[in-house]
Amino acid sequence: MDIPTLAVWKFTSCDGCQLTLLDCEDELLMLAAKVHIAHFLEASSEVEPGPYDISLVEGSITTPADLRRITEIREQSRILVTIGACATHGGIQALRNFADVAEFTSLVYASPEHIATLAESTPISAHVPVDFELRGCPIDRRQLLNVLQSLLAGRTPDIPNTSVCTECKRRGTTCVTVAEGIPCLGPVTHAGCGALCPAYHRGCYGCFGPMADPNIGALLPILRINGMSATEIDRVFHTFAAAAPEFDQRKADGAAQ
Description:
- This protein is of the alpha/beta class.
- It contains 12 helices and 5 strands.
- Strands 2-1-3-4-5 form a 5-stranded parallel β-sheet.
- The chain starts with a strand and ends in a 5-residue tail after the last helix.
């Protein structure tokens, strides 16, 4: 039987999610025995042509060249998995979506006419079908290994769709908002990180993006009670998942008041 081929691709991003795969170390050695890594420039300059059984895609779409390349990658990939906040929600660079990119380029570059960029940073799913999403900034290594092992075994990956609050309960972490008055996006943020920040007495920053049907309106008064101004609320929702439409519900719910 042929060994499945794996490709890892980068678009506009910091490479942190690809590094998460490399940081798997011992598990990566076992994974390498089950798949043939045909394209992974972060690890090797050797590149083999597709098609590929599994493609992991990091980064958002921000240039015309990105648009062409992601279409080609989708055509060559049997299964496409987006990894990280940039690929799933546009990332921090999606802050450009709320400003004038032409003004930015005119101020930063001596010859802005040579800069080819799009007005918005968008997730991969806005342009091609995506089979699975792994969220986070960066992704969680346990989720990554679970998805790869499941796909290689022919199983559907088990990706939770609850909130970070459920993970706090599972690990026995006391609610930082209730006990310490710390603002936290855990009630509206997608699970998957293992409630890492609350475990260290920090509020969730929402790097895994919105959970399914988040109740933003119910969380806003709690954030205000715990000391967040309208500007701070806008900033925290406009960070890792700036392009997520679910997080924009706060505007309709009066966060700017």
